[in-house]
Amino acid sequence: MDALGEHHRRVAALQRPHAWPHPVERIEVIETHISTILLAGDYAYKLKKPVNLVFLDFTPLDRRRHYCNEEVRLNRRMAPRVYLDVVPVTEDTTGPRIGGDGEVVDWAVKMRRFPQSALLGNRIQRAGHEPELIERLADKLADFHANTTIATDTRYGAKEGICERARANFDALADSFPAHEARLKRLLGWTQRAAQRLAPAFDQRQRQGHVRECHGDLHLDNIIVWDGELAAFDCIEFAPDLRWIDTANDIAFTVMDLHFRAQPAAAHHLLNAYLESSGDYDALRVIPFYSVYRALVRAKIDTLLLEENRSPEARRAIMARVERYLALAEHLTRPAAAKAVITFGVSGSGKSTAAQALVEHFGYIRLRSDVERKRLLGRGKHARTGSTLGGGAYTRKQTEQTYARLHALADGVLSAGFVPVVDASFLNRAQRHSFAKLAAERHAGFTILALEARADELRVRLAQRQAGGRDASEADLDVLEQQLQQCEPLDATERVSAVTAREILSHPG
Predict the structure, then answer these.
(1) Among 348, 484, 495, 354, which residue's Cα sits nearest to residue 423?
(2) Which residue in 285, 300, 376, 430 has the most C-beta neighbors within 10 A?
(3) pLDDT tens profile 187-200
């Protein structure tokens, strides 16, 4: 019997209750291309199949043990409660068992079992877009990327490897889906042009330390919400070049998967919240490329499923899914209209709420003065600076630096092909004119999102916001009174560019 046959024999034998070190009433088995997962009571045990494929070789026993250890090491970074240990599979005259005193014939990753309802993909299907959850996910992924190891091997994240992997997707898809030849040809042309144009960006991001030991497989069915906690599991342990990647490549997978699951508001929200948390707005230059790449990777993976499924119904479902991935990839290649939006209004007028609505409806990129002001001081977005009126973080100099940063970020967002919505008070006419000039220089449209409310209503909103304690803004009633006195109204030229929140949501163009 060959090694794979021995593996299947052991899996069958392990479905006996006495093969386990803890009480087990029923064993469930899940098979993938490279693993077998045995669901046993409160635990799950993952065995690596002794297979030799293009991208891995699990045939030697010591190599399976090595990659089991790697799987636990890597996944404990984001899912420490799930990944428990690496345990031996032994065999004696009574047959194979988990643990035991017999000869070690295999190794298994022991995990705490979680319900399928915990998968974020299933939760999104049930509940749709949950803004607070998306914010938490963005913060968790940004924190993970900020703290994971930076690549020192220059092969990782090199433009040559990026282009080679992107091209490999097309080779596999062209053979399996000749009916999509025209679409694949368009996508290949776009990918080649984008890769050539972005070559300097790939190099720069590698030099700046954005290529790190990431997760590598961050789709929604590899993320769970369990006992109130978010965790990402099942990262890529067997292929370092698929794990040591640009952080933008990692987050692009999650964003793409939300789009695929018909959750564009959640996709836009996640990307924007991730950028806001990480400060890595430069990632926007390569996000479209990686999003298209990830959609095509998923389509390519489905080609393997076609080879395994003979059922006409299953094959039709796979073909339909591939068509959706290809259509999404093509959709993601289309650039946004060149435009810049700034808000105008005192604290409490609803600027951030309106800007967030533009993010979720149209995929605009929100740039918040309250967040960037604190970032310049090395503080988190929810940190309290304790600044007095006109002092600390709110001196004239700090305000000028904040608007200069917003200007630079807006320029970068426009250059990357996205629409910036700059969420700041813009009470000073010179500040507004500076951004209008930027839009003109970039041959982009310019819109002022004007927010107004009665003074008594503004005071109530600020009091409620301060009581909540979770908003980035530190504005209080003293700030509001000062703003009301110092606000420079829109002039005649600016009023031509001004719209209300309702108008811009109804007619974003």
Answers:
(1) 354
(2) 285
(3) 999 999 999 999 99
Cβ count within 10 A of residue 17: 11
Output the six-digit token pair for 448. 């002022």
- Please answer whether residues 201 and 168 qualify as being in contact, where contact means their C-beta atoms are separated by less than 8 angstroms: no
- pLDDT tens-digit readout, 287-325: 999 999 999 999 998 887 777 767 888 888 888 999 999
Please state, in angstroms and rounded to a whole number, the distance separating the CA atoms of residues 236 and 242.
Answer: 7
Phi, psi of 106 (to 5 degrees): -165, 175
Judged by average pLDDT, the poorest of 8-22, 189-203, 403-417 is: 8-22
Structure tokens at 358: 């533009």
- Whether the per-residue pLDDT at 422 is higher than 90: the answer is yes
Q: Which residues contact 434 (CB under 8 A, 6 or more apart)?
A: 403, 407
What is the pLDDT averaged over residues 154-176? Answer: 91
Residue 74's nearest CA partner among 233, 253, 247, 224 is: 233
**Stretch among 249-263, 395-409, 481-495 having the lowest mean pLDDT:** 481-495
* pLDDT tier at 368, thresholds 50, 70, 90: very high
Name 66's Cβ contacts closer than 8 Å, sequence gap at least 6: none
Residues 324 and 330: their CA atoms lie apart, in Å, by: 10
The pLDDT assigned to 216 comes to 97
Helix (H) or strand (E) holding 162: helix 159-176
Q: Which two tokens stand for residue 219?
A: 């789709």
CATH class of 339-506: alpha beta
Full strand arrangement of the beta sheet holding 498-499: 365-368, 420-423, 339-344, 445-450, 498-499
Rounded Cα gap, residues 333 and 339, in angstroms: 18
Burial track 255-273 (b if 16+ CB lie within 10 A, e otherwise): bbbbbbbebbbbbbbbbbb
Give domain limits for the chain. Answer: 3-113, 118-332, 339-506
Using DSSP bridges, classify how beta strands 56-57 and 95-98 pair: parallel, antiparallel or unpaired: unpaired
Q: For the ranges 7-21, 156-170, 263-277, 475-489, which has the lowest average pLDDT?
A: 475-489
Strand bridging mode 223-226 / 229-232: antiparallel
- Average pLDDT (114-138) is 96
Give residue 61's pLDDT: 96
Neighbours of 399 (CB within 10 A): 18
Angle at alpha carbon of residue 196, lines to 194 and 200, rounded to 5°? 105
Q: pTM value?
A: 0.93
- CATH match for 118-332 among 3.20.20.60, 3.40.50.720, 3.90.1200.10, 3.90.70.10: 3.90.1200.10
Cβ count near 222 (within 10 Å)? 24
Distance CA 502, CA 351 (A): 13
Residue 375: which of 351, 404, 354, 347 has the closest Cα? Answer: 404
Select from 120, 93, 389 the least CA-distant residue to 229.
120
Confidence of residue 473 (pLDDT cuts 50, 70, 90): low
Token pair 């915990």 is found at 118
